[in-house]
Amino acid sequence: MKALCLCLVLLTTTAYAANIVGQATIIDGDTLEIHGTRIRLWDIDAPESSQLCRGDDSLPHRCGAKAANELDAFIAARPVSFEAVGRDVYGRTVATCSIGETTWPNG
User: Fold this and answer.
1) For 6-48, how does the pLDDT look when each residue is reduced to its tens digit (9 = 90+)?
2) Is the dihedral of CA 1, 8, 103, 40 positive or negative?
3) What are the helix (H) ranges across the chain?
4) Residues contacting 4, CB < 8 A, separation 6+
5) Chain-centre distance of CA 21, in angstroms?
6) Is the dihedral of CA 51, 52, 55, 61 positive or negative?
7) What does the alpha-carbon distance between residue 56 and residue 24 come to, in Å, rounded to a whole number?
8) What is the pLDDT of residues 38-58, one digit of tens each?
9) How far apart are CA 60 and CA 91, in angstroms?
10) The pTM is what?
11) Beta-carbon contacts of residue 52 (< 8 Å; ≥ 6 apart)
12) CB-CB contact of 96 with 83 (8 Å)
């Protein structure tokens, strides 16, 4: 049984090992799309694009749009490289990302 589990883990890891490189479109602060594939940034949890948050003054502000805009500004239309690490519950590829020498998360 342990051997079967190990084989399944190795096969799953291999299936997600592909790199995806190209121009990314921002979906929200933790999700991008490239070549028709939705990619969730590994270990990042940002508000949804339409999400509102309340600041210290209790007034709502568009934190989701701000997160998406910040990611868009960071990428600045540069090619992005994604290294898949798995899939999330929605079937999206979960990946670490690189732009030039900068890798995130942990970059």
Assistant:
1) 333 333 333 444 688 999 999 999 999 998 989 999 999 999 9
2) negative
3) 2-15, 63-75
4) none
5) 13
6) positive
7) 34
8) 999 999 999 999 999 998 999
9) 31
10) 0.74
11) 60, 61, 62, 63, 64
12) yes
